[in-house]
Design a protein that fits this description.
Immunoglobulin-like, 22% helix, 153 residues, alpha/beta, 3-stranded mixed β-sheet
Length: 153
């Protein structure tokens, strides 16, 4: 016996199955470890996203004050100055100078086994003002823990 399925049910199931794929395109998981390495060298951000979430996972074991990691997003040209000012600002402010207008978005500093996430307003990533980078502003980490952010159609 063949059963007829109502069109509304078929449509609802189809739309539900698309939802995870649509949201997955507007986020990424980034991992940092005790060897001061990120698992990604580039993050692609779709221009179709209103916001883009970076989920940071510290896969190491060392404490936040010893081998902490964060993620800072900025224009590549501003990275060195943001990093220098962040080191002066200290751990209490997540190694970010408070109110720094060059910082597009950033996470908090986390230690081994911890996770955090933050959202980038994609409208702040204008291709004409780029290129853009992400990096860890914990003292001494930006030399190794950095990558590019690429806007995609």
């Amino acid at each position: 016996m063949i059963r007829k399925t109502p069109f509304a049910l078929v449509l609802a199931l189809a739309l539900t199955s698309l939802a995870p794929a649509a949201s997955a395109a507007c986020s990424v998981e980034l991992q940092g470890n005790d060897a001061m390495k990120f698992n990604l060298a580039n993050i692609d951000v779709s221009k179709k996203c209103v916001t883009f979430e970076i989920k940071l996972r510290h896969t190491g074991k060392m404490a936040r004050n010893v081998m902490g990691h964060n993620v800072v997003v900025s224009r590549s040209a501003d990275m060195a100055a943001i990093n220098a000012d962040g080191i002066k600002a200290g751990l209490a402010t997540e190694y970010i100078k408070p109110g720094d207008p060059r910082v597009i978005a950033h996470s908090k500093v986390i230690g081994g086994g911890e996770n955090t996430s933050f959202v980038i307003p994609v409208g702040k990533l204008n291709a004409a003002n780029g290129p853009y980078s992400f990096f860890c502003s914990f003292p001494g980490h930006a030399a190794l823990m950095k990558g590019t952010i690429t806007l995609k159609p």
